[in-house]
Amino acid sequence: MLFPPGLAGAAGANCSPAKAAGKHYINVAVATLWKSPSINRTLDRPSLTNPVDIGKWTASMTVSQRRWLTGRTETQALYGQEVRLLQEKGSWAKVAVVDQTTAKSKYGYPGWLPKSQIAMTTSAYDGCPFAVVSAKTAALYEQDKHTKALELSFNTRLPVAARENGWIKVYIPAGGTAWLRAQDALVYEQASDIPQPSGEDLVSTGKLFLGLPYLWAGISAYGFDCSGFTSTVYGFHGIKLPRDASDQIKQGSPMALDELKPGDLMFFAYNQGKGKVHHVAMYAGDGKMIHSPKAGKTVEIISIKTPAYAQEFAGARRYIGE
């Protein structure tokens, strides 16, 4: 059930966390996971602190500096996402993002980040509704509802403690609670209550990010890579896709070009479509696709006949019912 604006669901009105084994969660708005520890540049510092300033970091980079991230960063994770601690080295930790599936690890998508960006809790929120940020970015406020604690990205999910007068009270990773404006998020009692989207719904969500600069490893409203874009759009609508394009193509139902409907994903591979899959786009209808292409470009809508892509087409998949 989706709770109507301004109302609290029965569970949300008095949802208290239960005791559980210790788990680790992302404790910054957007955490960037690296291929190995301490390979970052000085200019990457805003992405490595707590709190982070992802807006400042992404805005400061030139195209060549963005390209440098290719192969050096792995993925990102959002505030409140669970991670599994795999290894520690000095001030860095290797973690796996539990809900980002990948062939790289059975535990989730792996990478290194500063230890200061994760928090451990012994609380479980399985019985609580959750809020998912539906605005491109949303302020998280402290208890006074005036002091801004963090700026959260689209698709951030947090357990809900209560709702009142246009506000959502949420549990936060380091313990305690904070507030979101109800206009910035949707609240569901459980994940299965998220409505099945139409293809048009998926495309409409994707269009929110037109003009957003590409960011290798990006999965937030501050920048997406190609598969970060598609997995985030689908994930917001309750459909879990693998993190990478090379894994996404292994799921769903195969579709021919003349069968495409809005929301279907199109894949592209080296060697004229016969080699390794390296890119994914979403079919937008009318012979066009929406995608986050590469460093120096932004989320855009182009013709599926664009030569650079048409010659590398490797297949399409559908993940929602007819």
From TrEMBL:
Which SUPFAM superfamilies did the record assign? Cysteine proteinases
Q: NlpC/P60 domain: from which residue to which, for each copy?
A: 196-320
Keywords for the protein's UniProt record, in alphabetical order? Hydrolase, Protease, Thiol protease
The Swiss-Prot or TrEMBL record describes its family as follows: Belongs to the peptidase C40 family.
Protein name as catalogued: NlpC/P60 family protein
Top-down, what is the taxonomic lineage of the species of origin? Bacteria, Bacillati, Bacillota, Bacilli, Bacillales
